Structure formats: C-alpha cells, structure tokens
C-alpha cells in the first residue's frame, strides 16, 4: 500500500511539473470581427517576411538618385503600397527589397550591374537615414534581432541575374554587397537562361554560364529564385542546386491556365521535393485569370468616357467618375482568391512549402480588394484562420518556411569555405 501511495504521489508531482498544454483556439467558430482582431494579434507577434517588395525601383521611378534625398517612407506616403507606418499596422517585419534590373538594361554592357549597385546603396541609405525604424538584414538571425528591437528589416534580393553581367565573380561580389537571393531571369532571356515571359528560347533552359551561376550561388550563400524563369530553366536549376530554392513572387498556374510565369502543379511538387518554398504573388493577373479581361473592359470604358466628355486623366470630374465606375464594376480579385492559391499549394505539397511574396510596389493598381497595401496582411491571415489554419501554420507561412531555406543556404555556404 505504501508503495502504491508513493507511486501515486510521484505521478501527481510529475504531472504538476509538466508544462500546461497549449490552448487550442477554434478560429473558425469566431465572428469575422473577432477573427480579424485575432489575425492582427498574430501578425504583430509573429515575424512576417514578404519575399518581394519593389520599393527601391519605386524610388528610382520617382526620380530619387544617390545625389538626392531618398523617399521618406518612415512616414505614411500617399502613393505606393509600402511605408513604415503601414508596415507596422500590417505586422510586416522583413520585406525583401527587390533590386530590380529591367531586361532593357541587358542591351548595354555594365548597365545592369551599375543599376543594381545604385539600388543597393539607396536601400542602405534608408536604413542609415532612419535607424530607429529600418535596419539591413543579411540572415535569419539578423531579422530576429531587428524584430526584437521593433525595427523593420530590409533584406535584399536581386530581381534579374543580368546584374552579374558576364562575370562569374560578380556572384560573390553581390553576396558581399548583401544580396541574399537572385531571380535568375526577368522579362527576357539573359546570359543565365530563358524567361517565362520571352517567346525566344535561347538555351531551352539554363545556359552553360547559368549552370555555373547556380553552383556559385550555392557556394557563396545566395538563394536561387526561380520566379520569372521558363519551365525548362526551372527544371535545370533544380537538377543542379545542392540546396533548397525559392520562388520569391509566383502563384499557382492552376488558376491562370497558360500563364507560364506562375508555377504548374508539376513544378510546385518538384520544388517541394527540393525542400523549397513558393511565395504567393498578390498581383491581379497572378491570382485570377478573369482579372485581365475585367480590367481591360473598365479601362476601355474610361478611355471612351474621357474622349466623349473631352476630359483628361487629371481632371477632377474624370477622377471622381473613374473611382465610382471602377468600384461599381470592380475587376479586382479578392483576399479569398489569394488564400485559394495558398490552399492549393498546401493541398499539393503541405504547409512547409508556401509563403508570402506580394510584389507590392511592383504590380501597379492590380492588387486584390482587401490587400491593397502592406497594412492589410491581417485580412489574409484572418481568411486563412477562417479556413482552419492554425497559428503554427500561419507562422510557417509568415517566416518559418523561408527561414528554413535561407538557413540551409547559409549552412551549405559555410560548409564550402
């Protein structure tokens, strides 16, 4: 009897020492208003990474150069999709700054690298000008440290490998400059490989130089980004890389048949087998094939209205009419459509291979209703909660998946030195 009591006492003590079981919240049972509040709370306590924000090129288009003041995104801006206040409202902590090189620069030797250098310096100046708000980030641990300080991290990815020019040593050069992914191509084939947007297929995949570039990116610790590449280039890169890859701003082709820029089910599965992550693009033409047709009809009507009424785009009367007409004939997709793409990737390959890659500041006025800027991320999180995603699922989508790839790339590079 004494032995039984002792064992029972030990069992009670042991049970008392166990950490309390994590409370399971049924977000699906909440009202929409309650769920949105929960989504905001999750967004603010969870690190959130966005694979692609085009702020640097937005600054360039806006006329900002190294000789002038940078765009003050420390305060709310009337234009664009990203600034500090809205980023804080939405819970976005680490938007990858896109060092975007237009394909047209490829025609002039040296122009792509020069533009990349310029945009990198502009990004660095954001961090140095507003050190209480922004900080550069070159690793997952940098993002974590900045998050703890309340700073928004500015990791960088180079969109279009043309910045490498024809010199393999520039891969390491850009690693040293802080570039942490390179999108192999953009709108046209380049020296690395073929583009999804280009009807010309110079190599039917990667070039011999492109194969060397992928290997060198692995060696120096730059993630291979397969957004924008042709299907053949995608497959070639997967066959060569020694580490997981990303698609920094692509969506699922299932919803946009014939749009090679998005990823087919075959490629999503291949990327998952590689351990990679597809980061969903929010742009209208990426999310819903009906968007292009709907927006064309709206544009055609507004152009005719201007002509018939002898108005210009700048006229207040036209602006008022255009806003009213567009709202009444809304061609834009919805937050639900974005969630559909996430659902599709998860249904194909599981929760570990999807993330956010908005393309904010890069897709113009095509963003979904409810996802018009970085302040609106909680709307998407709320929709995912409504569909039964857990907090851990949300954390994986927000940062854990891309951190896993980023860390694997860093670890492999460290093993090569």
What does this structure look like?
The chain has helices at residues 2-17, 32-45, 55-61, 84-90, 111-129, 140-148, 169-177, 208-220, 231-240, 265-274, 284-287, 289-308, 316-328, 335-349, 377-386, 391-416, and strands at 49-53, 94-100, 134-136, 152-154, 156-159, 179-183, 223-225, 246-247, 277-280, 354-356. With 417 residues, it is α/β, with parallel strands linked by helices. The strands form three sheets. Strands 1-2-5-6-7 form a five-stranded parallel β-sheet, sandwiched between helices. It has a three-stranded parallel β-sheet with strand order 8-9-10. Strands 3-4 form a two-stranded parallel ribbon.
- Alpha-carbon Rg, integer: 23 Å
Give the neighbour order of strands across the main sheet.
1-2-5-6-7
Apparent shape: globular
Total number of helical segments?
16
Beta-sheet strand percentage? 5-15%
| Major β-sheet annotation | 5 strands, parallel
| First-last Cα distance | 65 Å
Low-confidence segments? 1-16
Number-wise, the strands total 10
Which secondary-structure class do the elements indicate?
Answer: alpha/beta
DSSP helix fraction: 40-55%
pLDDT averaged residue by residue: 91
